[in-house]
Write a structure and sequence with these properties.
The protein is mainly alpha-helical. The chain has helices at 12-19, 21-51, 63-70, 85-90, 93-119, 124-144, 147-152, 154-157, 162-165, 170-191.
Length: 197
Amino acid sequence: MLSDVPFASKSTPYLVFRSHRRAWMLGNALYMLIACFAYILIVILASVAVSASYAYVQNQWSPLAQLLVQDQSAYQLSSYRFIGTNIMNALSPYGACLLQWSLLSLYAFAICGVMLLINTVQKRSVGFAAAMLFHGLMFVMYLDGHPVGYYLSLFTHANARVLPAQGHSQFLSFLALTGFSACMYGLSLGLSRKMDI
């Protein structure tokens, strides 16, 4: 959806001339941030719509969710949990959904930052490929479980239930995701001076 960033049209040279390249790039970044949050929200609402007939509206964890966290052997789920005990004890379902929505949207924004950075100096296809490779690397680092790679992976920080279980706060996740995004978009602002618009 955002693989064509930075977005340019026939009127872009006039916009850049009147507002400056930084303002134009910041506008692209703001558009991408809103698009990421909106897209993840649409995915959440779509999944809610599909399962609405099997659910009820109440801001408390269902008995089944509590059972899956407390006694997984009943469902032969091995060590995999849908919801961490720490999340269930600390947050309501709506709070957990809001937290996961925020983290996942910031992760998508960080991936878009990689794509924007590459797209400012290379073809759009190269930027898209780089973003997908970066996402793949983050996912492999998350699955590998190596102590260093696991915590350096942005995918780990995008998962609301992972870090608190290891004694970390969600603040660390927000800091990692926003810090990485700030670096990517800051470098994109610097490279935008060399773009041929």
